Amino acid sequence: MNSRQRRGVILLLLSVLCALGAFAGVISVIGEVNSKVGPEVVAYRVKSDIAAYSPLDAGKFEQVTIPERWRPPTAVTDLGAVKGKIALTTLKKGSLLQADMVVDRPKLQAGEQEIAIMIDASTGVAGKIHSGDRVNITATFKGKRPTDPDRSVIIVVNARVIEVGRLTPVEKSGERKGTPEAVPITFALGNKDVNRIAYAESFAEHVRLALLPPGTEGSVPPADRWYTLDGDK
């Protein structure tokens, strides 16, 4: 083997050693990163913004994987946990779903029924009345005869709201006045109040809600539940 061949062999060996050193360095870096990050686990994030108090289902979330050490202890790992629940606050797109972001949907009590009605957005309910709130429900009626005064009636006192839907376009029908948008609101009520609500939605000019302070139960004397303009004279 001449000197040129020996130099070639030496350079080849040096190249091999350098390659092995670089490979070992990469393996070392990967190992260090893995030791710091750790294994990945499953979590879920919000696909698009979800309004507060909206009902939740699995289709509103997508599965992601994140390092276990970065997953919060409250992170939801099973979407079965959101079944029958509602959003406690507005959930932003891309947010990691956590157990403290959701609450159980209010349940019916003995003797109660669910009834949903559309409330005009012009009454100011959008964004102000939420699941669990208490409201008084007032309906306004035209006089049966031209000589009869129009009247306003508090038809239900202390109604419990169990769900507030999304703003929905509605069509005007007949002579009934309204706005192009309304909000479906579901109440938990007894039999008589269910009938009152159904009657008001069918025959009243307007149905309005009056929000009660948190933690209080409204009480309206019977004499104060009816109002006509003549009563102020």
Query: What letter string, H or E per element, gives the SSE order?
Result: HEEEEEEEEEHEE
Task: Tally the structural domains.
Answer: 2
Strand content: 25-35%
The poorly predicted ranges are: none
> How many β strands by DSSP?
11
Radius of gyration: 32 Å
Cα distance spanning the termini: 125 Å
Structural class: alpha+beta
Q: How many helical stretches? A: 2
- Nearest-integer average pLDDT: 79
Question: Which percent bin holds the helix content?
Answer: 10-25%
Shape: rod-shaped
Give the topology, please:
Layout: H1 3-37, E1 40-46, E2 61-67, E3 85-87, E4 102-104, E5 113-120, E6 134-141, E7 151-164, E8 168-169, E9 181-189, H2 191-203, E10 206-211, E11 226-228
Antiparallel strand pairs: 1-2, 3-4, 5-9, 6-7, 6-10, 7-9, 7-11, 8-9
